[in-house]
Amino acid sequence: MHFYKSKPLVFFLSALLGLAACSKSSDSDPVTLPTPVTEPLKIAAAKPGDTLIIKGQNFNEIAANNTVKISGITATVVSATTTELKVVIPANATSGAVTVNVNGITVDVGSLVLNPLTLYCVKMDTVTNAPEWLVGINPADGKESPIASMGEIPEYAIPNIVYLSATNEVIYLNDSATGLIKINVATKQTSTVRLAGAGNLVRFNELVTDKSGNLYAIKNDASIQNNYYQNFVRIDPKDGGLTSLKTIVRKNGLHVEASTYVPATNEIVGKSDFGGLFKINLRTNDTSTIQLTNGNFETVYGMGPDKQGNLIGYKMITDPNTYNSTEQVVQINTVTGAQTVLVPITGDIYLPQNTICALPTRNELVGLYEKNKLYRINLGTKTADVVTLTTQTNMWYYKMTNN
Description:
Layout: H1 2-5, H2 7-28, E1 37-38, E2 45-46, E3 51-57, E4 66-70, E5 73-80, E6 84-88, E7 96-102, E8 105-114, E9 119-125, E10 132-137, E11 144-151, E12 161-164, E13 169-173, E14 179-184, E15 190-194, E16 202-209, E17 215-221, E18 229-235, E19 242-249, E20 257-262, E21 267-272, E22 276-281, E23 287-291, E24 298-305, E25 311-318, E26 325-332, E27 339-345, E28 356-359, E29 364-369, E30 373-378, E31 383-388, E32 395-402
Parallel strand pairs: 2-8
Antiparallel strand pairs: 1-3, 3-6, 4-5, 4-7, 5-6, 7-8, 9-10, 9-32, 10-11, 12-13, 13-14, 14-15, 16-17, 17-18, 18-19, 20-21, 21-22, 22-23, 24-25, 25-26, 26-27, 28-29, 29-30, 30-31
C-alpha cells in the first residue's frame, strides 16, 4: 500500500529533474551573434586626422563596442549605427589593411593608403615656358616634391584642380573643358577620360570633391537656342559617366566659382553672380542662393571648411573712394550669409582665387602669395606667416588644392 502511495511523489520528482535538465540544456546553448558585413571603402587614400566612414550591416550602436584597426593600429570610433561607423584615423597609423571587430568577429574592409597632409600645386617657369609641373608642398615648411609633368598648358585653361581621395589623384579639366586629366600622386601616372556628352557647346567647369571621394562639376550646355542650361553633375572619374543632380535654365548663364564642399551641411557652395552664394544640397539636390557681400567692393576669393566643418572665407574689402583694400578671414553662415571676422589681416595681402586652401587638421587657411610664397593664417592664434617656396623669381606657383 505504501508503495502505491509513493508513486505521485516519484512522478513529481521526475518532472522536476526533467525541467532542470531542460533548463540546463537551454542555458548552455550558444547565442549566435550577427556577423558584421562591410561594404568596400569608397576612398583609396586619406591622411591622419581624417574621418573615415565605414558602411555595412550588423555594427553595434554603441561606438565603444566596435573596434576598427588601420594597419594594426586601433582607431577611435566617434559614432556608430548598425549600418555606419565614423572613425578618426590615428596620427601613428600607416598604410595597410582596415579591419572591423564586432561581437568578437573580425572582418576585412579593404586597404587604405595614408599620405601626409600635402598641398598640390601647379608650378611654371615664366621665362623658359617649360611644361608645367604638378608638385607636392609640405604646408609646415614649404618643402617641395615634384610629382609629374602637366605639359604646356595656358594658365587660363586650368580653372581649378582638385584632389580625389577615391583614387588618390589630382584631377583637372583639359584645355577644352571637355575631359579630365588625372595624375595619380602615388604612381605619378597620368591618364585622361572624356566626359559624357561633351562637345563644342557642352563644356564643364568648377570641379569639386566631397569627403566620401565623389567628384562633381557644373555642366554648361548652350546647345538649345535662347537658353543656357547648367547642370550640377556627379562624375564617374573612371569612364566620364555623369549622374545629373540639378538642372538650371539661365538665359544669361550662371557664373559660379570658388566652389567647395561643406561637410557640416553636406552642400557644395560656390560664389555666384553679384556677390552671392550658390548652394546645392547633396542629399536633396535642392539649390538656393543667398547674398554674401555688398556689391563689387567686397569679394570673397576663397572658401573652405574649418575644423568644425563650418565655411570660412578669405575676404577683400575695397574702399570705393581710395580703392585701398583690407583683408579678413571670416566664418560664413551658409543659411543667412552673415559673417563673423576670425582674423583681420594687416598689410596689402592678395591671395588669388583657386590658390586658397582650408586645412582643418592644422586649423589654418593657406594661400599662394606673390607667386612664389605660401601665406599661412592660423585661425587659433590669429597670426600669419610667410614661407618662401623658391628664391627663383622666374618660378610661378598657381592653382592649389590639398588632400
